[in-house]
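cron nightly-structures :: item 1 of 1
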Amino acid sequence: MARKESITKEAIFQAAFELLKEEGIEQVTARKLAAWANCSTQPIFRVYKNMEELTEELFEKACEFFQDYYADFPRQTVTPFVNLGQAYIKFAGEHKKIFEFVFLSPERFGKSMYDIVNGDEGYISREIQSAKTQGSRNAGELFTRMWIFIHGAACMSLTGDYDLPDAETMQLLKDSYHSFK
């Protein structure tokens, strides 16, 4: 009679995601994951052909994690790109390891940063359309300028060099929008 599997793919994946959140993708190794999942490496390679397959699955989950974070983020203004910027900056500070993995990694499994942030819901597309509706002559270029500012602030948040209160961040984003508009 075959031995009953005691650890599922779901349990391995959940342990891998927790390890990613706590220690970063570079620490998601077979041995370390086995320790986190309280198993040997054998079940890991029973459900994943290699660590690259697991890493790609983790990347998809991390992108969804960001999308969920943004979807649940409170909307505080109608000024385009401000809520998105505020959420992105806060995400970097609150979920450092996931932010690094998704937004600072050279390997994005065929997705651009735009694709990741825009998501299935078209978040960036809606913001660009909103900017057009509010009179922006070149909303795409406006987004590019805003994104450079937003991503820079998020990276500063990641390193602990950005510690402005939410109200100041919102005002900076609004001021940037109006100066770039």
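cron nightly-structures :: done
The chain has a mean pLDDT of 94.
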